[in-house]
Amino acid sequence: MYMAMPTNTEHEDRWGAQIRKGSLDLAILAVLWNERLYGLDILRRLQSASLEVAEGTLYPILMRLKSDGLLQSTWVEAEAGHPRKYYWLTRAGRQRGRSMVQSWDTFSQSISGLLLPIKNGAKER
Amino acid sequence: MTEVMVSADHALIRQYLVKVSAGLKQIGEDQKKEILAEIDSHLRERIEELRAESEPHPLERAISGLGDPAALASEFVAEARTKSGIHSYAPWTLLRKAARLARTGTKGLFIFLIGLMGYGFTLAGLVAAVLKPFIPQMGFWVGGWGFVWGVKADGAPGHELLGRYFITASIALSFLFGSTTTLVLRRLINKIPFFGNWPMG
């Protein structure tokens, strides 16, 4: 019987996508930390930080973050001729952002320690 | 099906929105309208961007950027399911959640106050029932001045209505307040995630 095994590249792509997905909430809170932005603007900020986010992925997440009380939004008439929905952080959103950054730091320090052998190539045969 | 009440003046955008709308059956009407309006706004924004970049088919490109409408709708539904709603019936858990919501705005504060009042009455009723054997003046007093559930002021004219049934009535009232507050609080807290269904603040 033949079973298709994922290639290394496929595996890395899937793993990378999971990491991006897991960090997207924090990334969105971060881009909204200092300003109010609308959807496409948020997308552009994320992309400029090399976070490739599909357009269709962003809006459902924004809806959930708003549902969780982390974001607030309002429609603003834009010069472009159609309204834009601007988002900003609530106080709960700021608190969540801070606690997520702490967790992120702790996690990344732990992982960095574990990764040292790989980085240094110490046990390479 | 929700009528697409957005400013979609182009047939392709309208078609796309209708398909998304069809996949949003499990989402409340107001929330659905909000989602469709945002997608409409995104598409218009994107079309302008692409036109500025001299893209030959801006409309089609913009729509394909959002992907399959059914898949987009199911992403919304999936995210709505993962909302951090509350499933507990424990008063302490509900009150803590309400306290967190209170920091997010007036609606949250309103919910927290309902919780405080409801559970406050519940506790007061239980305390009254427990104290009755030790404080005989505890009761349901009625007089020309109104009524009191507890101990009436010294010297105030009035008579007690419940007698030995006061303890049972107090416990029953506490149960009623407690269970009603729990149900109302759960409902309000879980409604908060769908602010689209609330008057927009």
Give the helix level of chain A as a range of percent: 55-70%
Number of DSSP strand runs of chain B: 3
| Helix/strand class of chain A | alpha+beta
Mean pLDDT of chain A: 86
Amino- and carboxy-terminal Cα gap of chain B: 26 Å
Structural class of chain B: mainly alpha
Give the low-pLDDT segments of chain A.
none
* Estimated share of beta-strand residues of chain B: 5-15%
The main sheet of chain A comes to: 3 strands, antiparallel
Radius of gyration of chain B, Cα only, in angstroms? 27 Å
Q: What is the strand arrangement across the widest sheet of chain B?
A: 2-1-3
How large, in whole angstroms, is the Cα Rg of chain A?
19 Å
What's the structural blueprint in terms of helices and strands?
The complex is a heterodimer of chains A (125) and B (201).
Chain A: H1 8-31, E1 37-38, H2 39-48, H3 55-67, E2 71-77, E3 83-89, H4 91-120
Antiparallel strand pairs in A: 1-3, 2-3
Chain B: H1 11-22, H2 29-52, H3 58-66, H4 69-81, H5 91-102, H6 106-131, E1 138-143, E2 146-151, E3 159-160, H7 166-191
Description:
The complex is a heterodimer of chains A (125) and B (201). Chain A is of the alpha+beta class. Chain A is built from four helices and three strands, in the order H-E-H-H-E-E-H. Chain A has helices at 8-31, 39-48, 55-67, 91-120, and strands at residues 37-38, 71-77, 83-89. Chain A is globular. The two termini of chain A are 33 Å apart. The model of chain A has no long low-confidence stretch (mean pLDDT 86). Chain B has helices spanning 11-22, 29-52, 58-66, 69-81, 91-102, 106-131, 166-191, and strands at 138-143, 146-151, 159-160. In chain B, strands 2-1-3 form a three-stranded antiparallel beta sheet, with no helix packed on it. In chain B, a hairpin with a 2-residue loop joins strand 1 (138-143) and strand 2. Chain B is rod-shaped, with a radius of gyration of 27 Å. The model of chain B is unreliable at 1-8 and 193-201 (pLDDT under 50). Chain A binds chain B through residues 38-40, 54-57, 59-61, 63-64, 66-69, 72, 75, 80-85, 90-92, 95, and chain B through 7, 31, 35, 37-42, 44-46, 48-49, 65-67, 71-72, 75-76, 78-80, 82-84, 100-101, 103-105, 108, 192-195.
